[in-house]
Amino acid sequence: MTRQLFRCLLIGGLIGLAHAAASADEVPRWRIDPVHSRVVLRVSHAGFSSALATLSAPSGELHYDPEDWRSAEAQVVLALSRLDFGDADWNRRMAKSDFFDVRRHPLAQFESTRIVVLDSTRAEVHGLLTLRGVQVPVSLSVQRNAVGRKLPWLVRERVGFSARATLQRADFGMDRYPTMIGDDVQIEVEIEAERARE
Q1: What is the mean pLDDT of the chain?
Q2: How far out from the chain centre does Cα 91 lie?
Q3: Of all residues in the chain, what percent are helix, strand and coil, respectively (each to 5)?
Q4: pLDDT of 131
Q5: Res. 5: pLDDT tops 80
């Protein structure tokens, strides 16, 4: 009886694992469109104004079921060579070792670890951001804007998101000039992704 019970539990467990793996495989994959995706950084310039920078052409992949946020995952990569403060001298200064250290750490990477569903179009996405070789937990407030083929020339479905977060640059070792450059960095993300071929 004990052996039979063990066999039943083992078979049930294997079936459960197989079902979970199949469910993970069924979550639609979406590839980020670098042309229609961008990250904006906003930081105080000594309280006089907010300095703005953009990071264009992010790459990566989303796993996202429009009917169920709980299975969502995100992996995003940013090439820091594309960081643009709107001034060539400032760009060169920010690329140096005491700031973004682009030569030694050319990429920033984000990978989600947990999703907290708020409603059908909003969620809190928690994950790890790696920048300058330092990995820091971050939380983004994410809004799904639209999903589907809303434009007549689109071959495959698209999904679009807006996200917001606030980081502290000192957490990544960028703590120079604290009276001139604010520590809080507001992040605004616009992402479009195209459904991948299965």
Answers
A1: 89
A2: 23
A3: 20, 50, 30
A4: 98
A5: no
Measured between its terminal Cα atoms, the distance across the chain in Å is 45
Among 62, 39, 67, 42, residue whose Cα is nearest residue 52:
42
DSSP 128-175: EEEETTEEEEEEEEEEEEEEE--STT-SS-EEEEEEEEEEEGGGGT--
Quick check: 36 and 51 in contact, CB under 8 A? Answer: no
Q: Out of 3.30.70.270, 3.30.1050.10, 2.40.128.110, 3.30.420.40, which CATH number does the structure's domain 27-195 have? A: 2.40.128.110
How many Å apart are CA 38 and CA 28, to the nearest integer?
A: 22
The per-residue pLDDT for range 41-93, each reduced to its tens digit, is: 999 999 999 999 999 999 999 999 999 999 999 999 999 999 999 999 999 99
Q: What percent of the chain has pLDDT over 70?
A: 86
Cα 157 from Cα 71, distance rounded (Å): 19
Domain parsing of the chain, residue ranges: 27-195
Which phi and psi angles does 3 have, rounded to 5°?
-65, -40
